[in-house]
């Protein structure tokens, strides 16, 4: 069966997931995380992408990205992925692929889902049981978005900026969002949309996206039932 083409809409944010091949590790030391973030910032600038949130997990990466060109996120992931693989293969004296084929993604309806998806990304280490609070995890954007830590990667989205009239009130409002867990149904919805390369939004958003792209953007009802996801307690495998 041919692979489904990714949904790419001009100016619409994307949630991206890049997994290690066979869910194997893709980060092995602190230096790996640091270099990946350094190169993420560099290639985001070169391709015209804006990174609003990220979480680098042991065996996969989450990014929340927007750009003014529909093809820009793909160009970012290609350049970044190739450069990082070359580094890993050289440093750890290995060969072959590191990533699990193509990255997965979904376009996001900004008003209803963008901040929820941003929280989803930054809460990934908590769902994985690695930390109790997102601020405890070094390799996500929470400390930048929630606590004001300097971060060369992050470019705040307009909806985040609208949370407050100044930096202090904005960060306080953002931290307040983390007092409440994401509803399990919303977590599942984000996962299904991203893993299936479907639109994440209301019916009108999906209809507009389908009309623009000329094809279906939601999961169909035919076919085999979906497998039940692995329990979230298996920390490295949480998405």
TrEMBL record:
GO process annotations (BP): DNA transposition
Coiled-coil ranges from the UniProt annotation: none
Domain Transposase IS200-like: 9-124
Domain of life from the UniProt record: Bacteria
GO MF annotation: an example: DNA binding
InterPro entries: Transposase_17, Transposase_17_sf
Gene3D superfamilies from the UniProt entry: Transposase IS200-like
Pfam families documented for this protein: Y1_Tnp
Protein name: Transposase
Upper classification of the organism: Bacteria, Pseudomonadati, Pseudomonadota, Betaproteobacteria, Nitrosomonadales
